[in-house]
Specification:
By secondary structure, this protein is of the alpha+beta class. The chain is built from five helices and nine strands, in the order αααββββααβββββ. The relative contact order is 0.15.
Length: 251
Amino acid sequence: MRASFLRLCGTVSALMIGALGTAFANPTAQQNCDKSRVNAWKIYASCVEKQLANQAGGISFSQSVAFAKCRHTYLKKWMIFQARPLLAGSTCIGDRYTDNGDGTVTDNLSDLVWETKTDDDSIHDQDNLYTWSTGAPYAGNGTLFTGFLGTLNSGPGFADTNDWRQPTLAELQTIELDFPCTGVGGGPTCRCPSSPCVDPALGLTQSSSYWSVTTYVPNPAGAWNVYFGGGDPGLDDKTNQVYVRAVRGGF
């Protein structure tokens, strides 16, 4: 009996040591990359949410400058990652965007997968405009949801997935070209270097506003957008027709 007990204890000890050995093993380059990306996203998203909370609470500030600072700090992380030896061999090193060959691109910083736009009169055509809502009480029942996303997620789904959605304001701002903003919003020191203000990897983009899914809290009749003509976030009535770009994934 005692011998059996000792053998059992030895087996349990061996299993515990094995488990501890696994737990304390050095993380791989990809694990270091994923940790870095998640932490960077948490800080960025928190920054954007803080600005939205301030705006909802009636605090006076320049929203263009405030959101730009959040975005600029986040986008700089990609260049910082390139210089970190612990990330060598991971998806944090190299080109930020990966063309998936199926009408989508993956952002290796945010892990978001974006729809690329076309000029072929299809559901992906860059010229298509959509409403966010049909009117009061301003639910998500406009053609953005019933037509655009409904089509992308029908049947086998666009690019073989059915989880396409409209990006949040925080997500939509991440595909802008990076630029500092130290002055008044839209001023010479707070202006995107090109128009449309979006990375060319995303393909065709209108120099205009694109819907986000983020509602304007003080007045639910409005929703946030990003104006890719200059890089500023803005607001639009949900019943207006605005451009769109679908997204999936992320942290």
